[in-house]
Amino acid sequence: MTTLTETSVAGNDDRRENDNDNNGLKLMVALDVDGTLVDHDGHMSPGVREAAQAVVAAGHEVMIATGRSLNATLPVIENIGIERGYAVCCNGGVTLRLHPELDNGYEVMHKATFDPAPALRALRERLPAAKYALEDEDGNFLSTERFQDPSFGVEAVGVDFHTMLEATAVRVVVFSTENTPEEFNEAIEHVGLAGVTYSVGWTAWLDIAAAGVTKASALENLRLQLGIDPDRTVAIGDGRNDIEMLGWAGRGVAMGQAPEEVIAAADEVTHSVFDDGAAHVLRSLL
Predict the structure, then answer these.
(1) Strands, DSSP E only, in 32-168?
(2) What are the φ/ψ torsions at residue 72 (nearest 5 degrees)?
(3) pTM of the model
(4) Are 209 and 29 within 8 A, CB to CB?
(5) How confident is the model at residue 194 (pLDDT cuts 50, 70, 90)?
């Protein structure tokens, strides 16, 4: 594993190596959003934005790969200047094609849905005080306990728990303010979620998708479609929902503030989001 230190912040060594092997071929660059392109207040620094825009302008296949839902992802896509290409939302549950001639500039290529009821029932029994939200197949958010989050991209509609059980889901979110992260993790392990894919966030936060669906699974489908060699893939992320993506990439880079298990899945570690770690990696691709 390579760690970028203060003496190599510009990525010069990586840049020279990339130049020698470039041969005019496109890279496929997958970028997480929260904790990678933006800090935990949702702010993207000018350095990160300019570096991302430069990689887009260089003609590489740059795509957002995020746990955010569609409407919360679109402003980030616009901010870094992607007009043509693809994006992965909802931790792989939704894949977009981007083109200025499409209505609103995008279309949904693929949506992976699942029955959330078994997981929700099991979690509710173990975590009765938790808040639950669900994105349905039409892009609406349903929630209990007036649960709202910027990653939803739309205002959630308050419903009772029974109504949520009857929906078809693209994404389910569980959040607990009553439990410590350790208690939350213990409860999830005790439940033993089956038939879904899930990842635990920085706090007592859980994202659930269809079985086998991750950022990596959606990106691999796009890689095959684009005909890009596996060793021409790059991914940057910081969360546990990025572990599969970092392992999938030919060059997987963890942000400096990432948990130990995320760093272990990566080939390199860059600086934290507060020190523009993503910008250092992106500049190394130019």
Answers:
(1) 61-64, 85-89, 94-98, 106-111, 131-136, 141-143, 157-158
(2) -85, -15
(3) 0.88
(4) no
(5) confident
